[in-house]
Amino acid sequence: MNQKKFALVGAAGYIAPRHMKAIRETGQDLVAAYDKNDSVGIIDSYFPNADFFTEFERFDRHLEKMRRSYTGIEYLSVCSPNYLHDAHIRFGLRLGADVICEKPLVLNPWNIDALKEISMETGKKVNTILQLRLHPRVIELKNKIDSQKQAGKYDVDLTYITSRGKWYYSSWKGDDSKSGGIATNIGVHFYDLLGWLFGPVQEQKVHVKSHDRVAGYIEYQHARVRYFLSIDVNTLPAEVLYNKGRTYRSLMIDGEEFEFSEGFGDLHTSSYEHILRGEGFDLEESRASIETVYSIRHAEPVGLVGSYHPFAGKPLSRHPQHTASGK
Predict the structure, then answer these.
(1) pTM of the entire structure?
(2) CATH 3.40.50.720 residue spans of the chain
(3) What share of the chain is helix, strand, coil (3-state, %, to 5)?
């Protein structure tokens, strides 16, 4: 395989090092990177010779010069804030590059339709990172579910708590218009997983939704799912708090814990390997999960009625910014 030239948008972000690692481990070359923030010393660990820009216009000009001299990039990796994914994907396609975008692909379902048009016009592909589909344990579960052809529906409880400090609310992640809210920002890959495992959504309701959590019910073709997602440390189970843990992930299927907490470290590299072989997940693969989180974001909570997650009744916390301002 010939070495491909990559550029990366969002080099100072949390997820960017995983993409840099994947580019290096697949034998490719990162030639240019952009972020408005300059805390990007991590680049030295992977591609110290990469050109770096803090102004998008100069980054654009640099890549356009490369394109015109027939030494342009083959791939643009997008690790920017969620609300900018759509624009940066279009930027990459118009440069004549295939695009690899971190999840969520976009915030709104109709953005996918617009990107499909540009993808067809340019003949370039948009690949999205849906790494849970590549987890060996998840693949085993998928094969088991598909082979069993169970008559009834599975009963599933999804719990994901990943504690975040006050900084979260001062960043773009705390702005729902930019991040898409809790369900999108920390949960979109789980909704993709559930849809991939259990089929199309048939019914959906939100029980609780606030600045730091969302709980609800989704009925898929083959499963009834109660979910609880939170960034509030106080919603962690007592045993996790006792051990000073900050994260809790649980997927219960018909009363049995599905364990897949290990093996996450190499999934971005696996994703890049699939993409470079032409086997990446395309725009349409993301549609179901984007529609799910869009519906959650715009739903009116119904309260604790019907079948709701056991954690849904945990006491609500005050917004840190409101507390600080005395509201």
Answers:
(1) 0.94
(2) 5-128
(3) 45, 20, 35
Condensed to tens digits (0 to 9), the pLDDT of residues 234-280 reads 999 999 999 999 999 999 999 999 987 666 668 999 999 999 999 99
CATH 3.30.360.10 residue ranges for the chain: 132-268+283-325
The angle, 0 to 180 degrees and rounded to 10, between the axes of the packed helices 181-198 and 136-148 is 50
Reply yes or no on domain 132-268+283-325 having CATH 3.40.50.150. no
Q: How far apart are CA 208 and CA 144, in angstroms?
A: 32
The beta-strand segments (E) located in 102-162 are 126-128, 154-162
Q: Rounded to the nearest 5°, which phi and psi values hold at 102?
A: -65, 155
Contact present, 76 and 95 (Cβ < 8 Å): yes
pLDDT for position 326: 46
Q: By C-alpha distance, which of 261, 172, 173 is closest to 212?
A: 173
CATH topology of domain 5-128: Rossmann fold (3.40.50)
Q: Tell whether the model's pLDDT for residue 327 goes beyond 80.
A: no
Residue 318: predicted pLDDT:
81
